[in-house]
Records
---
Amino acid sequence: MSMDWVPPAEDEPPADRPSWSRLLGVLGLAVGLVVALNLLTGGAGSTPTRALAPARPAAPPTAEAPMPIPCPTGLGGVELDGTPRPRGTPVVLERCVKDPHRRQGMVLRRARDGSIGRNSAVVTWPVAAYGYRPTGLELSPDGHRRELVWEVGGDLARVHGDLPEWELIAIAERVTVQQDILLIGPPPGFFLLYANWYPAALTHEVRYFPLQANLVPYLGANGLVFTGMQRSAELEDLLLDDPGRRAVGAVHGHPAMLTSRLGSAAVLWEPTPGTWAYVAYTGIIGTEQVGQALVELARTSRELTDAEFQSRL
């Protein structure tokens, strides 16, 4: 774009005005016109001022990732002891899961006759992301357990147990969610055994190969024997889901159950309320064949304090 500047006649400078002064005035006005035109047209390579082109609104703030929850403390463990006495070096493991999005779980027991895997119920929330849908009370095909899924706290909850229909409904009616925390006031005749995460936040395990643990007469040379301790609702849920679970007397003075839902076979008991311990086997031998050997191993096992377990890591 070209522009010839011709000053108005009345602004004509005196005849004796120096020519260089006129030239400077022409150049100054031309520069001013070019700058103004560039601002108005948003010329290439220009940077508009905020008045002419408001700044693009800031992107909405992104939600910060939830901080991982701290790993629990104070959990002990179980090691094989007695006869047959372990030999060799077992593998000692501490697994801590810090995912803040885990499901929450509660275990309720019937006060008069509830025990591990018997006359109890597990409540879990939230479960929509795990494929559950709202249902009426459902009975498993073999009739050994019942479950109910319903809406609460903006998601779905599930109660699962071996209790009569009316007791499961009474439990469900008392479940609430406040500030994303699963809560319940147990119905009459029940007590709350455990309320925290559904899967274990912390697991302490000790693993033995049969040759290491002198278990070849019991289990052959194949497979793996492992002991463990954790606090979670998941182990109780696994027991309630096993129609073949059976009581096997006491381990360290506490009722124990044999199940095929943890490895190939496992014996579970509760050293303290809300804490589950186990001696388990995974391999080619079936539950019934290995069951009695596991019961004997559990009864001769040694329960460890947290300090004792940590010293073995």
Note: The CA atoms of residues 76 and 307 lie 7 Å apart.
---
Amino acid sequence: MLTPRYLQAIGTIFIIIWACGAWAAEPPQTPISEARALLGQFRETVRTLQSGGADQAKAQEQMASAMKDLEKIRALFELGGAADSNDADALQDYADVLRSMGDTDLAVKALERAVHIEPNAAKAWLSLGENEATLGSAHAPNAQRALRQAATLLDTPRSDDERKTALSVHRALGRLYYENGLYDLSRQAFLHAHELAPDDAEAHVGLAMLDVRDGKILDASNALDAINADSFRANMMIGQMLDPALDAFDESRRWFPDTAQDNAAYAKLLIRANRINQSVPPMERAVKLDPNQYVYWNLLASVNRPLNNVSRMREAYEHSLALNPNQPFVQEALAQLANTN
């Protein structure tokens, strides 16, 4: 039987534990905390979609659903008064939502408040710089200042998380300098990113684009060939940057060595930029300089396909098979061409 003194002791322990918070109830969820939890789920969905795997129709459906969730997340942030929050992390999350919905100017205001509250928050400075950069050349000086501040704060990364953030900072500086014609500074920034992460695909793309501009065609093409096809951001960079880089190379009147390798590499860059017509002459030059490379003949055939040049496709595939008979797909392609009038 429990004595009164024993019960009193238990009561005293209960009061102490409760006072220390061990048995305290979970704090009620606020609109901002709910918004941040949902934002974490949204980010995970986007990462999954960017990693590939789902068919295009399903991916589009999932993204449309995620964007509807983003509207709900924004509404919760605004219900909780996020714009006036004194929580720098919450302000950064709110800014991410605003940017995702196209309200970059509002995102900048939220991030300016965040860095005012936490001036040593490198991630907030990074996000501020990235957002400023998307607002056009007039905001480039502000973007540069923010990104340089982030770089200064992460001059000597002390953890994996800081190293990852520093990598993002130097990638962003590389893009910013590139887009504003500061190509030497752009190369320095992308090289710094490469030093932080030698296998980083985005750093490789940035350096490859600078090589295209400088006429280092073979180096650029080899670098892009090594990019993983599943690297969403890197391939998006290629799509955005390659065409202007090729234009800059043409306008500079530079040249590359007249070798089979270099001509084939130039043709491949043109194909990546969907300049099929322009890719034919360098590919023809490649097979003339080195007619013993069956891969070159296959590439020549492939660039003639969208031009509907059936006779040249047939010739190219025949040359390829003569060099390497063990190519079932080429044999099949020739068989299909035989049925073409």
Note: The chain has 17 helices and no strands.
---
Amino acid sequence: MRQLIAMFDDWKHNMRIFSCLLLVFLINGCTCDKIDELPSQENITTIRATLWGNPESGPYSGPSIKEFEISVHDYQKILDLFSCAKLDRNPAKWQVLGYLIIKTISSTEIEIGLFSTSERKGAFEIDGTYYRGSKDAEIVKVLLDCHNTYLNTKNASNQPMQ
């Protein structure tokens, strides 16, 4: 009888854990929407980016960064920002964070508007369709890293040969 009671207690405990995990998946969503407009890394010729600073609020309070070209080595970092996004059928009027322009080998240009939401999920827009995805801070970090790579490459190419 004690074994039966112990098994039942273990079962109740496991069901509580399972219920909590199920609730987390239901709240966070367990699937991502495929974004057909995004090309694969191999089909990209250039990515240009701009980051707009806002000293009063938002995830990036630094100076605005004028359009710069993303290094080929960073293309996957950029694409990863949009790899798990959910369609947003009711977008808010968010503050603009910046934009990306992806040019493909077929000369198509895809503009991605980046928005600051100050929420758990960031937001972006492609061709009039809005999505929620990577956090604002993650987007800013990746763009700042890419900008630093751009500056380092630019500075290295301006150094005189010895």
Note: The mean pLDDT is 84.
